[in-house]
Specification:
The structure is a single chain. The protein is an all-alpha fold. It has six helices and no strands. The longest helix has 17 residues. The N and C termini lie far apart (25 Å). The relative contact order is 0.22.
């Protein structure tokens, strides 16, 4: 399994359906989670996720990586998880 950088769970912990919408101040969950990182941390996450998306083919490994994010959002479908991770990459820019 790829080495998960500490920036990934720092962001991932904010993917939690129990985080009150008012706390997010109208931001969607990806924007809110990314806003907890500084520019350098975002680049670490982007590089890591690009590596994951390009090189991880095993659905079980992909799920292990997602669980390493300490997220309380469960995405059981491999394809949907890949779309979600790609959207994070896209939002970082």
């Amino acid at each position: 399994m790829l080495k998960v950088p500490p920036e990934f769970p720092k962001m991932g912990v904010w993917f939690d359906l129990e985080v009150d919408d008012e706390f997010r101040e109208g931001k969607d969950e990806i924007t809110f989670a990314l806003d907890t990182l500084n520019a350098a941390e975002k680049q670490v996450v982007k590089t890591f996720l690009m590596d994951v998306l390009a090189n991880v083919r095993d659905p079980k490994e992909l799920q292990l990586i997602w669980r390493a994010a300490n997220s309380r959002t469960y995405i059981p479908d491999d394809r949907q998880l890949r779309v979600f991770l790609q959207e994070i990459v896209n939002r970082i820019g």
